């Protein structure tokens, strides 16, 4: 692999933190920042507690959820996922979300690392897992959740991604990492 | 493929739009929303103009950029990318960003659809392209950009994704879609 032989580590330093919105699931800072080249810049950053996403299979099919996403005004296919509660670790959040949204209880989860959804302006980290040895249990949706469950084969999922039917980033990332692991 | 035979399309309807932050690269709404089950809920949505990401190859290696990302306090490897200017279409933004950040001029771009980075709270759409027939030109970075360029083989990139060195969502999504297209 090409060795990074260029400039030493560059860092943008916080001069002043300014909270411009303190909300329910997110807050926003507009910080005064010193760039490595000496320039003073503003950085608007959405602060988010993080999320978790799980790939779970039953009878060789992958569990998907379909729900209306207000941000886009459309229904979307996604792998089961959810926000981390304050102080909650991603592993237990993953077990919880899979049970609540899909009605599958995992014996354990295998980590597939994490992904950064949009690194220019949000600090959210989404943790990715594969569920192992799942069994069916009851679902427990949140009051504002309206979610349908589907099962697709891996080939169907890959085609839906290629056809731009699946557009959700965490879903595409986790499917890719899972595929890499089984080659 | 399993036919979606469950409930008809569900939609969350806007009762009232509330702009809680109007910023430089983003704004935030906290809308009053009517959920399909009749519940009144709040939806906090980051409004963003969108982005573009390009996979460009020279001598069989893929062009990457490395830059400090303030949101995470770390330097990250990403495919060349950028924000859409107001009214700018993604195709021309892609040509522009590739020239400015990497110093590669593409004869044309092939679309690989789009991805939604974090569908729970941002409406950003990131358009994905592969560059065709590139030639070297001068770079033109923005005043606040401090970006180094690297070239990696596809195998190196896949390994960096598996090893959680590449965590950037748009990068992972576009690499996956490109891989699917050449199988």
Structural class of chain A: alpha+beta
Task: Please give the radius of gyration of chain A in angstroms.
Answer: 19 Å
Q: What share of residues are in beta strands of chain A?
A: 35-45%
User: What order do the helices and strands of chain A follow?
Assistant: EEEEEEEEEHEEEHH
The two chains with the largest interface, and their residue counts, are: A-B, 79 and 79 residues
Approximate helicity band of chain A: 10-25%
Shape of chain A: elongated
Give a quick account of the main beta sheet of chain A: strands, pairing sense, barrel closure.
4 strands, antiparallel
Question: How many beta-strand runs of chain A?
Answer: 12
Helix segment count of chain A?
A: 3
- Average pLDDT metric of chain A: 93
Q: What does this entry show, briefly?
A:
The structure is a homodimer of 183-residue chains. Chain A is an alpha+beta fold and 183 residues long.
């Amino acid at each position: 692999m090409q060795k990074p032989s260029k400039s030493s580590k560059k860092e943008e330093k916080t001069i002043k933190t300014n909270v411009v919105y303190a909300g329910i699931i997110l807050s926003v800072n507009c910080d005064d920042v010193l760039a490595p080249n000496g320039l003073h810049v503003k950085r608007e950053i959405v602060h988010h507690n993080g999320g978790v996403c799980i790939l779970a299979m039953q009878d060789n099919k992958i569990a998907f959820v379909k729900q209306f996403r207000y941000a886009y005004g459309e229904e979307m296919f996604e792998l089961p996922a959810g926000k981390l509660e304050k102080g909650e670790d991603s592993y237990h959040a993953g077990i919880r979300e899979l049970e609540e949204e899909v009605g599958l209880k995992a014996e354990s989860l295998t980590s597939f690392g994490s992904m950064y959804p949009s690194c220019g302006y949000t600090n959210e980290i989404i943790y990715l897992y594969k569920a192992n040895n799942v069994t069916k249990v009851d679902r427990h949706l949140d009051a504002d959740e309206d979610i349908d469950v589907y099962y697709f084969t891996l080939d169907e999922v890959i085609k839906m991604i290629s056809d731009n039917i699946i557009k959700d980033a965490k879903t595409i990332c986790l499917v890719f990492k899972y595929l890499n692991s089984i080659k």
